[in-house]
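SEVERITY: medium
COMPONENT: batch folding queue
REPORTER: lab tech (J.R.)

DESCRIPTION
The queue accepted two submissions in a row. Attaching both inputs and their returned structure tokens so the on-call engineer can compare them side by side.

ATTACHMENT 1
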Amino acid sequence: MLFLIPLLWMISSSLKPDYAIFAVPPQLIPNPPRWANYPEALTFVPFGRYTLNTLIISAVTIVGHLLSCTVVAYAFARLHAPGRDALFLVVLATMMLPYPVTMVPLYVLFQSLGWINTFLPLTVPAFFGSPLYIFLLRQFFLTLPIDLEDAARIDGANTAQIIWHVILPLSRPALATVAIFTFQSTWNDFLAPLIYLQNPQNYTVTLGLQFFRTSYTTSWAYLMAASLVTVLPVVIVFLLAQRLFIEGIALTGMKG
């Protein structure tokens, strides 16, 4: 229960005037609660715009990861080709490269393409796959009975039809896991938007919180209210898909 204390304090602070947040002794339950902090905080800066930007980036990134990682993971799990396992090890090895190592080359590349201050550097890389999600999906695909695919091939299905009609319907837990991980990482990402987005109209919610804190006289009640609203989408998505998420995590490591 200790991990809930910061969340409870954030909720409590979001319903207080600033002077009451640092009162001694601290008061956990606001009396009376100041509900006006929420509309005032969310209109103090254009949080609606920031939320829309983040939703667009998250949605496109989820689609990109699901499309690219599914195809690549299926190839590593089912298709036989010389050097397949060695290539899979190379893909996994790229996970050891920390983001700061590739940060400068990527910025130079995207700048030469004219993509700076657009959503493209934050969304297009998703269509080239992610080593972690490729690994998760491959492990899940290995648990699926190959007899189903053989039966589909006997009926005349090609590889694309097998993936669409056989693999994807059976892979909802793993796909939900990838979607939740992607949404969480994209929604909470601060460094990449900070690097590539310069126009405040393109800011995401994480940049909006930082812009909120540094550009105006700090109101801790407003900041706590905006932070709580920012956290809610991730919590809601997890609660709605937690059964598939837990099932996907449990199954993706069952077979090597």
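ATTACHMENT 2
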Amino acid sequence: MNRRLMLILLSAFVVAAACSFVVYRVVGHGLMASQHHGTNVVAAARDIKLGSVLTKADLTTIEISGTPPKGTILDMKDAIGRGVVSDLYEGEPIVQTRLAALGAGGGLAATIRQGMRACAVKVDDVVGVAGFVTPGMRVDVLISGNPSGGPANNSQSRVRTLLQNIEVLSAGTDIQKDAEGKPKQVQVVNLLVTPEQAELLSLAGSQTRIQLVLRNPLDTQISNPPGLAMASLFTDSNTMAKVQSGKPVHRAYKPASRVYLIEVFNGSKRSESKFVSGGENK
């Protein structure tokens, strides 16, 4: 074979090998860079319960590829000492919204959202939902009593729905569900309410009897029940039929009539006269 031709072929082979090597290095470096491109973020080193205060032992760092979620904590110093407002699980990246503000501490106070209040309502084994409530459930608040301020067991007693779709913050001193999510027997339930709702509950607790009724957490509809008077349980059969059938009842409340007895003495004679408010004299 011609020596000159051999030299040309050898040179071409060397140039092709060099080009292949350069392309391989460039492409390989790009692939490696894309594979190792990530961000170190702060994550939970173990399962952490709601209300806990984070320590260094509770935290670790993990690398996630791509752009980290909004609010992800990148430095442990931004998480240590802050309360947990919802359960965290091992290996889960920690974001700002899952933690209370710095200095808010832990426990029940850390779970109260901005602008809200925790209001305690007393319940027992018979009235309300004692023994059937866990944190996170939704309840309605009913009150019963005498609008005129008299005894609650007379004919003028009434019941009405005071608040609806209220979140249960804690049952007794527990702000967490147990391992199986079962309810516990408690005497006090803390509700998450606005300041205005807290005032209503405080007044109702001192003047009326409070009862809690459970509702489906997916049912957010606000109804408008008219309330019910004690006298209507025995006299208004149409209203009771609607209530028992589940139909809405729209009826204006009419207070019961009052009877006034007046004694008249004319010398040795004595007589009585009765006057009925809203009715005719007898």
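NOTES FROM REPORTER
Strands lie at 38-44, 59-65, 117-122, 138-145, 158-171, 188-193, 209-215, 228-229, 259-266, 269-276.
No errors were logged for either attachment.
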